[in-house]
């Protein structure tokens, strides 16, 4: 997502309970526990990554 799209979406997610953790990637936001997952998102270079647990972002090679 380009910054013009990501910015408002990120703001909406934070307004609805997501928190900025910056872990393991700067800019990571994380939601509340949902079933077995704690959803997390980060937008880097125009690509939005969504995972069920923020620690999984460490395994995305392009984010290293």
Write the SSE topology.
Blueprint: H1 3-15, E1 19-20, E2 29-30, E3 40-44, E4 47-51
Antiparallel strand pairs: 1-2, 2-3, 3-4
Percent of residues in β-strands: 15-25%
Question: In which order are the strands of the major sheet placed?
Answer: 1-2-3-4
Number of domains: 1
Shape: globular
- State the secondary-structure class: alpha+beta
Oligomer: single chain
Helix content: 10-25%
- Contiguous uncertain segments of 5+ residues: none
Radius of gyration: 11 Å
Average pLDDT level: 96
Note the run of SSEs as H and E.
HEEEE
* Number of DSSP E strands: 4
| Main β sheet profile | 4 strands, antiparallel
Distance between the termini: 19 Å
Number of helices: 1
Keywords:
64 residues; alpha+beta; four-stranded antiparallel sheet
Account of the protein in words:
This protein is of the alpha+beta class. It has one domain (3-57). Helix content is 20%, strand content 22%. It has one helix and four strands; from the N terminus they run αββββ. It has one helix at residues 3-15; strands at residues 19-20, 29-30, 40-44, 47-51. The chain has a four-stranded antiparallel sheet, covered by helices on one side. The longest helix has 13 residues, at 3-15. It is globular, with a radius of gyration of 11 Å. The two termini are 19 Å apart.
Would you summarize the structure shown here?
With 64 residues, the chain is an alpha+beta fold. It is 20% helix and 22% strand.
């Amino acid at each position: 997502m380009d910054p013009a799209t990501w910015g408002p979406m990120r703001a909406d997610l934070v307004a609805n309970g997501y928190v900025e953790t910056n872990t393991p990637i700067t800019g990571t936001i994380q939601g509340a526990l949902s079933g077995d997952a704690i959803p997390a998102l980060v937008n880097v270079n125009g690509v939005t990554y969504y995972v069920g647990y923020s620690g999984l972002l460490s395994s995305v090679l392009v984010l290293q």
